[in-house]
Amino acid sequence: xxxxxxxxxxxxxxxxxxxxxxxxxxxxxxxxxxxxxxxxxxxxxxxxxxxxxxxxxxxxxxxxxxxxxxxxxxxxxxxxxxxxxxxxxxxxxxxxxxxxxxxxxxxxxxxxxxxxxxxxxxxxxxxxxxxxxxxxxxxxxxxxxxxxxxxxxxxxxxxxxxxxxxxxxxxxxxxxxxxxxxxxxxxxxxxxxxxxxxxxxxxxxxxxxxxxxxxxxxxxxxxxxxxxxxxxxxxxxxxxxxxxxxxxxxxxxxxxxxxxxxxxxxxxxxxxxxxxxxxxxxxxxxxxxxxxxxxxxxxxxxxxxxxxxx
Amino acid sequence: xxxxxxxxxxxxxxxxxxxxxxxxxxxxxxxxxxxxxxxxxxxxxxxxxxxxxxxxxxxxxxxxxxxxxxxxxxxxxxxxxxxxxxxxxxxxx
Lengths: 310, 93
Known about the structure:
Oligomer: heterodimer
Radius of gyration of chain A: 18 Å
Order of helices and strands of chain A: HEEEHHEHHEEHEHHEH
Number of helices of chain A: 9
Largest interface: A-B, 23 and 25 residues
Number of strands of chain A: 8
Shape of chain A: globular
Mean pLDDT of chain A: 96
Largest sheet of chain A: 8 strands, mixed
Low-confidence stretches of chain A: none
Strand order of the largest sheet of chain B: 2-3-1-4
Structural class of chain B: alpha+beta
């Protein structure tokens, strides 16, 4: 059968196998723009795939996007699929995305926690963590968004393996996290990282583990303000924004704090929309509206990164 | 497959820091097996609490006895999951 993106239903939730098959479809449909690379293996030996959007060049400045590090946030992975397709479709059509991709690469990990995601489809729809076994405990999994080496072990993460925010035995103990760390540090030219979650309508930036404002606070805050305004212009969805610690609470060991402390200035985390009724069980009819409104905000950040080299 | 029959998600709004501390203490109670989908952060800002069916009565009594206001965001988690599964199967078809 000929592979085609036109037969894929972006308005439906999909299993891990379906999404992984679709990655190949996207690559097949856009061979000169998109490639698939494997950056590692999950705890249960599933491949960790990243889509690379590149128009050429060597080790160009890059933007990292990830979705689905918390497996139960299904609208996040679904938004990732839609967004990756949009990136491919709009190159050569939309001047902004064309300009970005003519000078930068984009790396996109759509299912950042594949073991957890597969588990949400087979055994426990509300699973959040990885699936690694914890020595000495009957409780499984580590919160991969508390496992990064940025204030690791501090407040806002748990030392109990049974907690949903269990940080793990040591920083980067989870292969899902370590693989990203190795990739980004190995690349050496990643200028932005955007980690996408759901569901409380927020756009946040460092720090999460300490109350000290980030040195780039003002610029990050202004850019966040623009992004959420442009997001709201689509359907009127209102986001709050600010540093993680100001917006929600102290959270140690998070992705964006690690990225920022490792030289990625433009580090943001999204919390996608909340209809106020469904939480992680957002109906699939909400996928495309969610992705559609998120797109201009993502574009704002990516354009700003391109226009403010450092 | 784990089922969530009768589980509810409560939208809880703490009105002061003391109530937030009480909610955090609730999270520490391993016997209740509650799961904050959205953590308590600031007074007036809602948090969402997934409560397994066997703990519902105890959690509601706890909230009411401390004057913490709440509403039911999801009446029956399993019912929503069944609908989600049905929608996925229809989409595949």
